[in-house]
Amino acid sequence: MKIYDISKIENGYTYIKVLKNEFDLGKTFDCGQCFRWRVINNQTAYGIVNGKFIEIRKEINNDNKFDLFRINVDSTYDIFDIIDYLGLNDDYSYLKHVNLTDYEKRALKYSYGIRILHQDIFETIISFIISQRNSIPKIKSTIEKLCKAFGETRIIKFNGQDCVYHAFPNPIALIQNYENLKDCGLGYRTEYVYWAAMSYYNNPAYFKERLGRKDIDTEKILNELQKMNGVGPKVANCIALFGYNKLDSFPIDTWISKVIEREYNGHIDISRFGNLAGLMQQYIFYYERYKI
DNA sequence: TGCCAGGCTTCAC
DNA sequence: GTGAAGCATGGC
After folding, report:
1. Which nucleotides in chain B lie less than 7 Å from some protein C-beta?
2. CB < 7 A contacts with chain B (nucleic strand)
3. pLDDT for A174-207, tens place per residue?
4. In 3D, which of A29, A22, A25, A30 has the Cα closest to residue A290?
5. How far is CA A281 from the centre of its chain?
6. pLDDT at position A74, please?
7. Where are the alpha helices (DSSP H) in A65-187?
8. pLDDT per residue over A89-126, tens digit each?
9. At A67, which helix (H) or strand (E)?
10. Which of A183, A184, A200, A282 is the most exposed place for a label (fewest CB within 10 A)?
11. Dihedral (Cα; A165, A171, A175, A179), 10-degree rounding
């Protein structure tokens, strides 16, 4: 089921309309799947995607069927790539047919509107290596340090003035600056980041094209990723879910572990969620972390 | 100030 | 194969 449509293109902005409640800016960008987006008042979001700056603003409109979003982006960017990045082409309707527990229904209701993003593979690998045994604010600040130190500096005209930002670093930039890498607050993960960058640099096609093929199964991706030092089951599942768009992967972190103990007597059968286990995981994670 | 964070590796046993 | 210790750093 298609949930969006291009509404209009005006003054350099592209407006898209999305079925109501299917895309929530705040939940999508603050749910812990990405670390470089900033959301203001649940209405405007700024991010850097594949080295390009994007602003998405939710418009006030009276339509009771669609939400309207204004997308402001570099003119060289294909709007359909952004739509794909936002996960708006993915069909989440299967979960509506699953017999959910009361707890799962609460999590789904609370978190509804999260889209699982299609993030860059290399950025996702490095980001989730950094995420291990770290807090989300610390992850964000560490990644920003990396980007400022090693990412390409770019400038765009934004709201009438020059805006400076940094792309996520290329593998080679991280490899060539090992000594400076140590100064970014990575701690004991410095070696992991360095060697992951080296692995990727040595064979980018393997990570992008080979493992990124649609027909490759999630098990294969998880096994391959865990060959890298510093990538265990949890980080591999995050990379598969947020980078390779494998919506059946199910990262088990400390929060999800507690839920499994508390709500499922220590064992959860994720096959019930079909190929959307990862989406359900993200609903649960967001619910656990942010519910009042 | 001390605690702890979207875990992983290493090393006993 | 299983379980526990040790791990750098900085946000709160």
Report:
1. 4-10
2. A 31-33, 131-136, 138-139, 188, 226, 228-236, 238, 251, 253-256, 281-282, 285
3. 999 899 999 999 999 999 999 999 999 999 999 9
4. A30
5. 14
6. 79
7. 79-85, 102-111, 121-131, 136-150, 171-175, 178-181
8. 999 999 999 999 999 999 999 999 999 999 999 999 99
9. strand A66-73
10. A183
11. 30
pTM of the full predicted structure? 0.97
| Cβ A159 to strand C below 7 Å | no
Q: For strand C, is any atom closer than 7 Å to the CB of A267? A: no
Residue A146 has a CB neighbour count (10 Å cut-off) of: 24
Distance (Å) of CA A128 to CA A56, A226, A261: 24, 12, 24
Q: Percent of chain A at pLDDT above 70?
A: 100
List the A185 CA – C8 C1' distance (angstroms): 8
Q: Which residues of A16-43 are buried (b: 16+ CB within 10 A; e: fewer)?
A: bbbeeebbbbbbbbbbbbbbbbebeeee
How many angstroms is C1' of B12 away from CA of A285?
34
Residue at token pair 């993915």: A90
CA A141 → C1' C5, Å?
28
Nearest nucleotide, CA A188 to C1'? C8
Residue A206 identity (one-letter amino acid): Y
Q: Which residues, at least 6 apart from A256, have a Cβ–Cβ distance to it below 8 Å?
A: A250, A281, A284, A285, A288
Using the CA of A135, which nucleotide's C1' is the nearest one? B5
